[in-house]
Each structure stands twice: as C-alpha cells, then as structure tokens.
Design brief:
By secondary structure, the protein is mainly α. It has twelve helices and no strands. The longest helix is centred in the middle third of the chain and has 33 residues.
C-alpha cells in the first residue's frame, strides 16, 4: 500500500468513528434510520450534518437547519480549483466527483506531488470515506437506543468541536480573526431573541464589518508591493 493510501486509511477510520457520533445524535433528534442514511449518503458533509441535527434537536425550524447546513457546506465550493488536477475531464465524471469534494479528499489530493497520485488519493479517500461515513451513521443510529441520552456521554459537544476545528486554520490573519469575533458577538446577541439555528446564520454577517475594516485591492497596497 502506498504511503498516501496508508494515511488515507487512518483518516477514514477516524472519520468513521465520528460518523457513529453523528448517528447517535441524529437518532436522539428523532431522525429515522432511512433519513439518516439518505442524509449521510447525499449530504456527506459532517459539519453541515451536525449543524442541521443540532438545530433540529434544539427546536429550530427546518429553514434554520437547512440554512445552517448550507452555510457550512458553502466552503466546499472553494475546493474546486485545488482538486481540479485530480478530477476526470468528462462532465459525467466531474459530476460524480463533486460528491466527494470535501475537506479530507481535498487535503489528501493537494498533498500529492503529481496528478496521478492526486487522483488516486482523491478517489481512494473519497470512496472509502463515503462508505465508512454511511456505515458509521447507521451504526450510531442503531446504538443510539442503547446509549441513551447522548449528552450524558458528552456527544453533544461533537458539533461545536468540529466547527472549531474547521474554523481554526482560517484564523491566521487579522481580518479573519476580526470577522470571527464579530460573528461570535452577533450570535451571542441574537441567541435570546431568535429561534435555534438562526444565530449561526446571522453570525455570517461578521464578514461585513471585517471587509469594511480591512479592505483589499490595488488602492490599498503599499507603493512598490505586489499582492500575493
């Protein structure tokens, strides 16, 4: 087995365990096993699924659950240029590949030295990850009735933890940190006055003051510098 396949195997196994956690939480939120299977197979984005289930279990509306999930899934649209070299040239092939463009496949593909290895890492990681994510979700749903209250096991922290893990790498610049602080402030203020899930959507407005405070463009570059 090649080094990148060994790395992908470890990654896939870890994500499969997270899938079990999702299944438990989804079962506790009242989702049936068929719904959990369809959600994991078609959405296939952990953070978005945790967000939707968290909103539903908190009494939020379907609109808030959908909006929260879409907000977190929007980042996947930015991965296209990164994994482009690993994707097939045909339209039908790219349509299939789009289902597997997620954090893990992007990271594995981008780390490879050439196009052939990038494609192998992308498909190997994506297919096995999809299988174990769906199976893990089903296992969690089945075990949910035996586990009881997921809060007693600390599983209710899965979504906040995954959200923090996703956002942390993006806080290396001052504008990003400012946007995060403003988004958190908006969410905290909105919690007492809005339904469950809505504060997360409103937190996205934190980018507005960040853009206003840290504008970018040729007119804001120092003389003699070139924007990277």
């Amino acid at each position: 087995m090649t080094p990148h396949r060994r790395q992908a195997t470890v990654l896939v196994a870890a994500v499969g365990v997270v899938g079990v956690t999702f299944g438990v939480l989804a079962d506790a939120a009242g989702l049936s096993i068929p719904k959990i299977v369809v959600m994991s197979a078609l959405v296939f984005t952990g953070a978005s699924q945790f967000a939707a289930v968290g909103v539903v279990s908190g009494g939020g509306t379907p609109f808030a659950a959908f909006g929260s999930a879409m907000l977190l899934a929007a980042r996947n649209a930015l991965y296209g240029p990164v994994v482009n070299r690993a994707l097939p040239n045909s339209t039908s092939g790219r349509v299939v590949a789009a289902q597997f463009v997620i954090d893990e496949t992007t990271a594995m593909s981008a780390a490879q030295p050439d196009d052939r290895m990038a494609a192998d890492a992308f498909w190997f990681t994506g297919i096995w990850l999809w299988c174990l994510w769906v199976l893990g979700s089903v296992a969690g749903a089945v075990l949910g009735s035996f586990i009881g209250d997921p809060n007693a096991w600390g599983l209710d922290t899965a979504f906040p933890a995954s959200f923090v893990a996703l956002i942390s790498p993006h806080l290396r610049t001052s504008p990003a940190r400012f946007a995060a602080v403003m988004g958190a402030a908006i969410a905290v203020v909105a919690i007492p006055f809005t339904p469950a899930g809505v504060p997360l959507l409103l937190a996205a407005l934190g980018v507005v003051p960040a853009v206003w405070r840290h504008p970018r463009g040729p007119s804001h570059q120092a003389p003699g510098t070139v924007e990277s």
